[in-house]
Protein: Cytochrome P450
Organism: Stylosanthes scabra
Amino acid sequence: DLKRNNLPPGPWRLPFIGNLHQVGELPHRSLQQLSSIHGPLMFLKLGSVPTLVVSSAEIAKEIFKNHDLAFSGRPKLYAANRLGYNGSSIAFTPYGEYWKEIRKIMMLEVLSAKRVQSFQAVRLEEVQNLLHSIALSGGTPVNLSQLTLSLTNNVVCRIAFGTRFGGPSSKFYEHATVNNNDHSKRQHDEDLVHVLLRLQKDSNQTIALNDQHIKGVLTDIFIAGTDTASATMIWTMLELIKNPDKMERATREVRELVLLKKEKNVMVEESDLSMLPYLKSVVKEALRIHPPAPLLVPRETIQPCTIKGYGIPAGTRVFINAKAIAMDPACWENPNEFTPERFLHNPIDYFKGQHIEMLPFGAGRRGCPGVNFAMPLVELSLANLLLRFDWKLPNGIGRNEVDIQEAIGLTMHKKSPLCLIPFPIYL
Ligand code: HEM
């Protein structure tokens, strides 16, 4: 086997599953199926690339607890290099000084709590726009997949460039302060391009940011921040429509909260979200069953290490099968059932990557830095979709007939668009 796999010397004893053409269509679907047949640690050759697939919480725990550094590389991928301006993107850049510094800049300047908070009004206004376009549908089905993707693109475009995606630039950016729903004032904030250009001129920065680096960071925000958030909204709506009792409970929670406000036509705002524990549990459960990045972002070992007695050489490509881990009956009771209640009185924060039973945002040094950027928009949008509309499947489709197939891609989307009929509700 060692000869056949042409591996560097090492005590490889893992089951060899086959070459790419024998394995069939990749990525996650076949890897998931293979994991259920071949166990929690599996070795493949993707072309000539030695590849490890980790599909159990126990092994993932050992990796992130004891060998995080060894597993914190990213493979050099041609497509990622082209998309990420020659290795300037954070997500696809190999482990090293550039990655450390650019990630630090992103955490401190782009994704800090203060910066994310400063764009609260953009998120609210874009959710409002979404609700308006849905209300215009006049009782015909709306394509929620398309609408949520436009929403996330508009939000990210406005935050990054100060202008909407494919639409007129917003009034928000034309006025320093604008009245919002007659009850709150917004502050004009620097968009991210300006933040990054300011840092470029700052001689105190540890790396000299060039234009390629700035484009790489912006690419990260688009690639990582638009698709993933809209996929989360769609999987959540899909599970709710398939589980009417959960839909009813989540909707009731949102509407009761808004009725307490005793104002007409109000929206759920970000400050209300902490009072929606059931909705938050619904989103968590959707992220468990449908993690938008089911194999995380590919990793590569940067030094040799030993996992469960198997020698893993440096330069091995690694897929952490987060989807298989989150569906493992050893970690979750009735893992295939959509049960938001399992999170209701559970204080564990599953988004920080410290509880390996569920890893929607990855873990360790390369874990997702965008959780706090994504979640307010996801929760705000869903809360308002449930507040303003009752949702039904188009005529003739029963809730057990809804297509739940996953498309193949970096982000796991629903294969066919989610089309639902909105019925406006006036509280
Ligand atoms: C629901 C939304 C999101 C999900 C499910 C998600 C998930 C992930 C996952 C699984 C990874 C790989 C982690 C690993 O290898 O351990 C990742 C990496 C990353 N994410 Fe997210 N993400 C989301 C939103 C965002 C947003 C909004 C941003 C930025 C605005 C973002 C920026 C990044 C970056 C820069 C990385 C690469 C980190 C590194 O390699 O150091 N993500 N994300």
Notes: The chain is about 45% helix and 10% strand. Residues 90-91, 103, 220-221, 224-225, 228-229, 232, 292-293, 296-297, 360-363, 366-370, 373-374 surround protoporphyrin IX containing FE (CB under 6 Å). The CA atoms of residues 152 and 226 lie 5 Å apart.
